[in-house]
């Protein structure tokens, strides 16, 4: 019997399974599909701190190597560049701020690793039709090609995506929020755009999509991902038949030859479940929260859900922490989802204003931003993903010398403080801090100035298994260190 059943074999479920197996937890992954469906680029922007998580399971370096690296995000209004954001690295990470690679390729790399992981098994054609739990475990009922089957495990992690309505209903969860009226046309194009290969470009109200937006991302293999905001009644088939799609593309690529690799139309939603833990069942990724894609907070936040859930489930299953540790998964990751919804909702109000007041505000900001640096800070084309800060978590030990972290300035990261992801700096033995923190052991890592010179002399930094700083205490106070270590893993103070 597996110790954990993961429902959904997308990147979130794959990551969770690999992290659980790495910590010695047998896991079975169930997916309703008959096999992998590598169609379209889908989620393409993989953030540095997520690549770090994948590095812990042996995939991160390949994602970074195959992806297109970019460090600059340019924003335009009509034909004028308003500003460019350069992304910094406070910890000298071996990975770029972002790597653009298709979700399909990421899934292939994760599948390859899963196939070499003895404690993880993937079962396709297993459509979950029911989840029931009791004091001892969870029973999952599946529809399979050979008939109905049931599986049982102490815990279940649901990573089944946005359409997991039946599972949410079984758990008594709503999925409240809204869906935006405007549609977005997405095309993967193979073409040559000199100078565009390593930059993200966002256009407000260009002459070739008046009144709306266009986003262009470079991707591997001489390809580009282009997103056009289009009318609520946009008809893709009609656009193709009339030649409108070709004209739309030509307005970007000119007379250069191009090839359409994939195209689709989406409406984006903002939704959130009220609970990300229901007894012995945890929810992660799009089945728990949906955000608009501007800022690349969907897949990236889902992978961070997976890491948070995996280390806590492993600690419980290995007897290192009590079952109550799992409640902190809901507290921490629900707060992260609220932050992502807050940020992306503000972006969508700017991108798709619904009231005359919002439209007037946007016109004023964009007009002033051409010459006024202060106005440029108000232009919202999507605040790019960043790791959440667990300053208010019950696992975090506050320190008055390090005030609680909040949202950092755009393009920057929070300085080291309790709750913040530790900068990825070198250790004295040649390893890196985050890799050291993520070792598959029960003990949190304690850093001091002797092991990592970036740690101020006289301080001890207690790191959680997901490399977040749990506490900064006096290095000469062993009782304070011990208390912070226990608190970081959900153990009683005594």
Automatic annotation (TrEMBL):
GO molecular function, one term: oxidoreductase activity, acting on paired donors, with incorporation or reduction of molecular oxygen, NAD(P)H as one donor, and incorporation of one atom of oxygen
Pfam families assigned: FAD_binding_3
Record carries keyword Flavoprotein: yes
Alphabetical UniProt keywords: FAD, Flavoprotein
The protein's required cofactors: FAD
Domain of life the protein comes from: Bacteria
All residue ranges annotated as the FAD-binding domain in the record: 3-339
PANTHER family found in the cross-reference section: BINDING MONOOXYGENASE, PUTATIVE (JCVI)-RELATED, TRK SYSTEM POTASSIUM UPTAKE PROTEIN
Name of the protein described by the UniProt record: Oxygenase
Provenance organism: Virgisporangium aurantiacum
Upper taxonomic lineage: Bacteria, Bacillati, Actinomycetota, Actinomycetes, Micromonosporales
């Amino acid at each position: 019997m597996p110790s954990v059943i993961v429902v959904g074999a997308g990147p979130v479920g794959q990551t969770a399974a690999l992290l659980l197996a790495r910590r010695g937890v047998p896991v079975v992954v169930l997916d309703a599909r008959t096999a992998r469906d590598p169609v379209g680029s889908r989620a393409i922007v993989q953030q540095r701190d997520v690549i770090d998580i994948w590095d812990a399971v042996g995939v991160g370096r390949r994602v970074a190597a195959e992806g297109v690296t970019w460090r600059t995000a340019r924003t335009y209004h009509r034909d004028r560049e308003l500003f460019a954001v350069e992304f910094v690295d406070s910890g000298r990470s071996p990975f770029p701020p972002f790597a653009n690679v298709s979700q399909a390729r990421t899934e292939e790399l994760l599948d390859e690793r899963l196939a070499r992981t003895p404690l993880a098994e993937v079962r396709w054609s297993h459509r979950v039709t029911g989840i029931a739990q009791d004091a001892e475990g969870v029973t999952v009922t599946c529809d399979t090609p050979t008939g109905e089957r049931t599986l049982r495990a102490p815990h279940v992690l649901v990573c089944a995506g946005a359409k997991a309505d039946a599972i949410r209903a079984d758990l008594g969860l709503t999925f409240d929020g809204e869906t935006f009226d405007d549609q977005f046309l997405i095309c993967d194009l193979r073409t040559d755009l000199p100078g565009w290969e390593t930059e993200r470009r966002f256009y407000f109200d260009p002459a070739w999509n008046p009144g709306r937006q266009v986003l262009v991302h470079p991707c591997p293999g001489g390809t580009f991902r282009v997103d056009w905001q289009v009318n609520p009644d946009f008809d893709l088939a009609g656009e193709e038949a009339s030649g409108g799609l070709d004209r739309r593309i030509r307005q970007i690529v000119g007379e250069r030859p191009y090839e359409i690799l994939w195209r689709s139309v989406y409406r984006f939603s903002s939704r959130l479940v009220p609970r990300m833990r229901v007894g012995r069942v945890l929810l992660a990724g799009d089945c728990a929260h949906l955000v608009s894609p501007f800022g690349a907070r969907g897949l990236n936040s889902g992978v961070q859900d997976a890491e948070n859930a995996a280390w806590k489930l492993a600690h419980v299953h290995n007897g290192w922490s009590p079952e109550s540790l799992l409640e902190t998964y809901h507290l921490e990751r629900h707060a992260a989802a609220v932050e992502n919804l807050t940020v992306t909702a503000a972006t969508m109000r700017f991108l798709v204003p619904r009231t005359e007041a919002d439209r007037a505000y946007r016109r004023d900001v964009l007009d002033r931003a051409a010459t006024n640096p202060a106005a440029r800070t108000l232009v919202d084309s999507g605040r790019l993903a960043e790791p959440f800060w667990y300053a208010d978590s019950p696992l975090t030990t506050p320190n008055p010398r390090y005030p609680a972290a909040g949202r950092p300035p755009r393009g920057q990261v929070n300085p080291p403080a309790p709750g913040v992801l530790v900068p990825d700096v070198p250790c004295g033995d040649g390893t890196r801090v985050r890799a050291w923190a993520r070792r598959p052991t029960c003990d949190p890592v304690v850093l001091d100035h002797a092991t990592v010179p970036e740690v101020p002399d006289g301080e001890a930094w207690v790191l959680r298994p997901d490399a977040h700083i749990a506490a900064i205490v006096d290095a000469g106070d062993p009782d304070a260190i011990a208390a912070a270590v226990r608190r970081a893993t959900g153990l009683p103070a005594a």
